[in-house]
Structure formats: structure tokens, C-alpha cells
Amino acid sequence: MPVSPAPPRAARTAHPVVRPTGEERTFAADELIVSKTDRRGVITYANDVFLRVSAYARDEVVGQPHNLIRHPEMPRAVFALLWETLAAGRELFAYIDNLAADGASYWVLAHVTPSYGPDGAVVGYHSSRRRPAPRAVERLRPLYRQLLAEERRHPNARAAVDASSALLTELVAAQAGSYDEFIWSVIDAEER
Questions:
Q1: Is residue 185 exposed (0-12), middle (13-18) or buried (19+ Cβ within 10 Å)?
Q2: What region does 149 belong to: left with phi over 0, alpha with psi -120 to 50, or beta?
Q3: Which residue, among 115, 119, 107, 109, has the nearest Cα to 86 in the 3D structure?
Q4: Spatial separation of the C-alpha atoms in residues 165 and 55, rounded to whole Å
């Protein structure tokens, strides 16, 4: 599929704040949600599965920051780790709860990788997301609740992210040694 160009700046509109409804949505096990962004995280491509599950039209997402679908109950520490990992030129797997335009939430197992241009420089990021097993989501919920509680204890976003990132490192190390090992242990349990 060709990449849809971002609309001119003047044509971009601010999206209203979406409030979670408590409804959870899912998608078929054989489907992949795919999106691409530029280096700043602005969406340059979204496949039809992304659009259907997120309840957005293509022209509502292309040209918008990917955090358009960020669920407010998703810990910022996970996104800080994501950007830190991508900045180091590495891929990351993460379980993420997203928020659709209609307020429904949907969990994904995301695989995010840097995209490289002909000169070898990072030109953006590619994300493929599959449906996680319910037991994997249930394993992540308590961890994410702990991280959110830690974030809410702090007066500003920077302090919140720093504190929850430190807690994430501590909790993951106690279970698996590293974030990657922890996520792979969840994925392995998912496939059993």
C-alpha cells in the first residue's frame, strides 16, 4: 500500500479528548495492526486493521502523533523505555493498552523497530502489533497498575517518568533480569 502523505499543517485538526468507556475490543489472531511513523513519532502510514480497531479514519491519523491512541492507564515508563530503546537503534517488544476514538481499549503485543533510509540513517519507525493472549494481559495489569500508582505520586511528568522507570527496572530485574527477558517470558507463557 502506498504511504499516504501527511496533510498540510493548516489542514490538521486538534482531536477532542477521548475518554475511556471501559469497553475492551480485540481483533483476530491472524491479523496484524501496522503503522509507520517519522522520527518524531508522527504517523505516516496505518493499515486497515489499525483503522478498524482504533475507530479512526485514515485522514484522522496520518500526520498525527502516534500517542493519539495512548490509553491514559498506560504507564509512561513503558513509552520512555520504548523511545530509549529505539534511540539506541534496537527493536522493542511491549504489551500496550491503546485507546480507540470511540473510547474502547484494545491490548496489543507491539514489535517496534527503527526504519532505515538508503544511507543507513533512521528515517522513522515501524510497528506491527498482534493480539496478545488474555493471560499475558492479566500478568501485565498488576505491573502497570504499580507503575501508574508510582507516577501519580509525583508532581510533574519528568519526576513521574523517572520514578516509574526506576520501579519498572527494579520489578523486572526481580522477575527476569532484564526487560527483554521479562517480555519474552510473558510471550513464552502466552504460547504454551
A1: middle
A2: alpha
A3: 115
A4: 31
What is the DSSP track for 127-160?
EEEEPPPHHHHHHHHHHHHHHHHHHHTSSSHHHH
Look at residues 132, 133, 131, 113 and name the one whose alpha carbon lies nearest to residue 123: 113
Domain map of the chain by residue range?
23-191
| pLDDT of the residue at 14 | 56
Report the interhelical angle of 134-152 vs 76-87 (nearest 10°): 100
Query: What mean pLDDT comes out for the span 39-53?
Result: 98
CATH of domain 23-191: 3.30.450.20
Q: Provide the total of helices (H) and of strands (E) in the chain, helices listed first.
A: 6, 5
Q: Model's pTM, two decimal places?
A: 0.88
The pLDDT assigned to 50 comes to: 98
Q: What is the pLDDT of residues 115-154, one digit of tens each?
A: 999 999 999 999 999 999 999 999 999 999 999 999 999 9
- Does the pLDDT of residue 4 top 50, yes or no? no
Confidence of residue 72 (pLDDT cuts 50, 70, 90): very high
Q: Using alpha carbons, select from 144, 157, 154, 169 the residue that is nearest to residue 81.
A: 169
Average pLDDT over residues 74-90: 95
Which grid cell sits at 89?
537503534
- From CA 2, how far away is CA 51, in angstroms rounded? 15
Q: How far is it, in rounded angstroms, from Cα 84 to Cα 72? A: 20
